[in-house]
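Quick one, T. Sequence first:
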Amino acid sequence: MGNVNLPTPVALAGGAICILGGYLLGVVTGPETPSRTTALVESYDDSTSRLCLTGDSVEDQEGAVDGTLCGIWRRTEGNDSRPEPGDRFRFVSLAGDPGPDDDTGRAEPSTMIYGDVVR
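Structure tokens:
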């Protein structure tokens, strides 16, 4: 049996096709990424970082109650801006297991809101 040598361009093209095929397979079968949504700020409590958002896009979010999504606002370091009622806010939310009962005796899901005010 003899040695078979491929020309370099053919070997590089084959490698590129394999990488592209792996990428496409990952995009098609991989997990869905969360979509960023824009809503209006209803209220923000600076002492607890509790942010409440409202709007049509909030109604479909997990953890929204009566068209309002409330949760703990997580933001990037160095961001000192504070949301004001009426500001447009672009966000991604993650709802977790219900937290401890509040004063009303009902457990609410713990929701994290990641995002910032749209300027």
